[in-house]
Amino acid sequence: MASFVSSSILLLFLFFPIVMPLPLSTNSRWIMGEGGRRVKLACVNWSSHSELMLAEGLSKQPMDTIAKQIVSMGFNCIRYTWPVYLLTNDSLASLTVRQSFQQFGFIDVQANNPSIIDVPLIKAYQVDRFSIGSNLGKHNLMVILDNHISKPGWCCSNLDDNGFFGDKYFNPDQWITGLTRMATLFNGVTNVVGMSLRNELRGPRQNVNDWYKYMQNGAEAVHSANPDVLVILSGFDFDRDLSFIKTQPVKLTFSGKLVFEAHWYGFSDGPQTWVTGNPNEEPMSMAIANRYLNCFLGVAAELDLDWALWTLTGSYYVREGVVGLNEYYGPWIIIGVHPGIRASYKEFQLSKLLSGVSQRPGLSEVKPHKVIFHPLTGLCITRKSFDHRLRLGPCTNSYAWSYSPHKTLLVNGTHYCLQANGSRTSGKIGIFCTGSNSKWEMISDSKMHLSTKLGDGKSICLDVAPDKTIITNSCKCISKDNTCDPSSQWFKLVDSTRSSKRVKRSLLQ
Ligand SMILES: *[C@@H]1O[C@H](CO)[C@@H](O)[C@H](O)[C@H]1NC(C)=O
Ligand SMILES: *[C@@H]1O[C@H](CO)[C@@H](O)[C@H](O)[C@H]1NC(C)=O
Ligand SMILES: *[C@@H]1O[C@H](CO)[C@@H](O)[C@H](O)[C@H]1NC(C)=O
Ligand SMILES: CC(=O)N[C@H]1CO[C@H](CO)[C@@H](O)[C@@H]1O
Predict the structure, then answer these.
(1) Which atom of ligand 2 is nearest to the CA of 369?
(2) Do 253 and 395 have their domain in common?
(3) Predicted confidence (pLDDT) per residue in 34-66, tens digit
(4) How many whole angstroms from 160 Cα to the centroid of ligand 1?
């Protein structure tokens, strides 16, 4: 009887849509839902700030299909971009979608999204009126409204006059008006959970005084117009620098809503770092997209970050004057010439796993422990399987490890520890944990190799065989060799407070 009951509960979790506990608020560094439950944002950017001011991709597929794809890829949220002029320039905002396209001599969305063709742009953007939003709500996607730019068009450069308060197209009063109107428009739309006040500040005018003055004003304006949303602030230099908030806190009249965002790209530290550099020596300074991605996934899992991917778009209606330009940094799906999922998408199943290793502050299911996360696959070292060999599996089925001061990795509640199996190539769980083959250190500049020493003093590293069993191997490309790829040997010891048993709970943090 008991087992019957528990399997019905599992089914409920599987088949009923998960209702997000909204609105969101913050508690220390965590984003929480109503009732004190953590909600971890796993977002993808959906661009709607081009000259056409319409969410990209609607020429390729119906909105509903796009929304379903977003959910099926494991995202729970979109970062939905908008230009200030959409809210402050009536002659632009009142254009219909058809008229907006006509300026470029073509109309592209009629076949797939006929319901929006004669709708004004501002309404086409609204998630509560037209299908974009009701669809997003229906699919349980949370939405962050991101003010991307003032004057609609491709973003962002140091010289585009949209970079900082006072630039030609960045009038602070107009910006506040735009934010206020946007916040008001979505007041009461529960799946709109946050507003990102301005994307990637940049350019010669950047300075700390203006940042505090205007960001604080902007945050207050948004909060007065819509007290439910999180207010999300960007830093300097394309949002790579938020260091100044360490010394001067942001002062607001309200609490529990403030979030900071930072941006990190494969090219943030120079265009070639990840292509030519040794990834062990450079991973923290930053393209072979996968080298960057594996490092990012390790960091994101370790810090348990809420995150957003740039970008959903496969191609743009018009970008920088070119019709149908491809987006190469949006590697996961093409909402483009051939809508579908790129081969490299399979990597992005990782999004689910990433959210699978998170902590649950305030409401932990079990005592804090470590999981051993493998960024390349998004998997963790799991409980022994049928043949007693250690292997990778879903992080929800991970061993709970503790990492002792003696550098042993013990399975919680037992005397068993992770060991190199002599000079053999397998990793194993053993009981005599005092030998050198039971001491594990994170080595290399990346600190992502889990290494131990054999009896003869030789270092070996934990690695993964093609069949996903855990093996030991000589440590790969620790230094100098820039051509080799160490990522099969990259692991992270990640804090977790989740029970590894209740798998379905992982759907909601
Ligand atoms: C509104 O946008 C149009 C088209 O870009 C521009 O010509 C006009 O000057 C703008 N009006 C205001 C008030 O910014
Ligand atoms: C560790 O084991 C103890 C007892 O064996 C158990 O009560 C506890 O929940 C376990 N903790 C984790 C993190 O699994
Ligand atoms: C460890 O190595 C021994 C000797 O080759 C082998 O018999 C055993 O199966 C290995 N253990 C594991 C868990 O792989
Ligand atoms: C994280 C982020 O928002 N990145 C990009 C968003 O959009 C523009 C294109 O409009 C990029 O240039 C940003 O850097």
Answers:
(1) 13
(2) no
(3) 888 888 898 889 999 999 999 998 888 888 888
(4) 17
